[in-house]
Structures are given as C-alpha cells and as structure tokens.
Amino acid sequence: MQTNNTDWRYTVMPAVFTWLKETETGVLEIDFDATKEYAAGILKVQGKGGTRMGGLVGSGTLGENSYLSSVQRLSLLKTLSEVAKEYGVPLVSGAAAETKEELATIVKELATVGVDTVMVMPPKTKEAPSDEEMFAYYQTSAIAAKEAGVTIMPYNNPDAAGYHALSTVLLKKLAALPEVTALKISTTDVSIIETLMLEDQDLKILAGVDTVTVHAGLAGACGGITGVGCIFPKASVTMQEHVNKGEWAEANKISQAMNSISYLDAQPLLLEYLKFAFAIHHNDEAGGLRTLGKKLTQAQIDDVRTRYLLAKERLAALDLLD
Fold first, then answer.
1. Which tens digits make up the pLDDT trace of 258-267?
2. Would you say residue 167 lies in a domain?
3. CA distance 61 to 64
4. For the whole prediction, is pTM greater than 0.85?
C-alpha cells in the first residue's frame, strides 16, 4: 500500500464513526469489520490534487468514545491501528480523565494498541483548575507519552459542555513541551488560532470544526480533523489542498458547497447527526440510527437527510463526489 508521506499535520484527518450491530438479544455491540471497512474506504480517497487523508482518528466524539468501556475502546483502536498501518498514517485518539494519574494510565494504555498521538482533553472536573494545575495535568500526560513512545496533542474545546477552556497563555506553554506535536483547537472562534500564530508562527495547530476549516486556515491552522470528511472525503481533502496552497477562493467554494452539512458538526448532537448522514451516503439508514447516544426524532432525521442531499447536489456540481 502506497503511503502518504506528507506531514500529517498539514492534512485533514477523518474522525471515523464506530459502527454498531444488534445482537440477538437486542444489545448493541461494536461491528469491528464494518468499522474497519468504512475507515479504509475513507483513507483510499484522493483529492483532486492527488493527496489523501493524512491520519486516522478513532474512538473520538464521533466514534462514541464517551459511551464505550475501556475494554471496548482499546479493542476498537487495536482494530483501527491495522487500517492506519496499512495506509501508512498515524492513529490518533483522545484521552480525558479527572486526575493526572488516571490520565497517565490512559495514555500508556492507548500506546499499547497502536495509537501514535493522544489528543488530551482538559480534566473532567466540576471546577476549572488553575493554569498551574492544568499545566501539571498536561505535563503528566507528556511524561507518560515519552515513556510510552508516543506524542500528545492538547485539545482545546471551549464549546464542548463539561470541559474547561485552555487559555492562550497556557496553550503556548504546552506547545513548548517536547512531546507535544500539535495543538487541536475546536471552536468557531478562530481568533484563538490567529492570536496564537501571531505570537509564534512555528506553532502547529489543527482545526476541529468543519464549519470553519477555511477560516481556520486563514488564521494559521496547518490542518484539521473532520467529521464531514468521512461522508465526503474527496471534497474535504481537496479543500485542504487549496488551503495549503493559499487558494482561498477555491477552498471557499467547497466550504460553501458543504455548508448545509458542515453546520451539523458544530451542534451538540454532531455524533448522531453526522453518523446518520454517513449512513444515508452508504445506503444504510438503519445502521446510522444505531447509536449509543441519543435517538433522533423524525424531524431531526428529515433535517439531516435534507442537509445531506443539498450538500451532495452542490458537491456533484463541483465534481467532488467520490
């Protein structure tokens, strides 16, 4: 299998869905074969410029991470590591804990199943830690990563309920840790990215919200992690190709074409919405409604279908369907 030798931080990477199947008793369990097949299908796709997705993000928000047990999560990632190795890309997954000691354990566990870079969320505590406490939390993860032979990516997601925003002062300090390979900034407020880049042009920042991919690139992000790109990978990769070349008008055409569905990536039910849209794309609506998350109402199902079809029509006009 030909590898993608581009620095993965300058590419877009898919946050793949975890496919589920129903047992005879009605219990949902991970369908490892389907999850592996769909992940490989996404990594096969090339953009118009000939590049592909530069990495694979597994067991993230869109992978139903918060609903999986530790055993399920590690088994899933071990399966996805086979796909990542086949296509010569790094495997990325997330970690969040209440204490730094627990976090260190999770980082080391992820390394044992083939994860190359760990996206580290802020601590899951009710009260926001001080910057000093927050730094110690991330520093502990960095030490664990060094011992395990992996890297980390501090994950700032101020729009996500239950997590604490990282200040730009702290983000710059974290970026200086040797084990930190990049920062992930998931917010529609791209001024955070611009502020960081104004102070250090060498920072590597990945955007994490599909609605602002082009805007994040203008602000200085070098790459991104996508949910919509799982559904329309050719469009997502091609858009990143234009961003990397500074071809903003061309990149924006694609962003506008995907606007109706990218909107869903910035909603609280992004997992449920985008997973169903992915299922429509693959003619498996029933499979898309199998989730450990919330059940969609008929009105929500109809809205997702309408948004998907509109994006598909617009992307077809640009010859960007796979």
1. 999 999 999 9
2. no
3. 5
4. yes
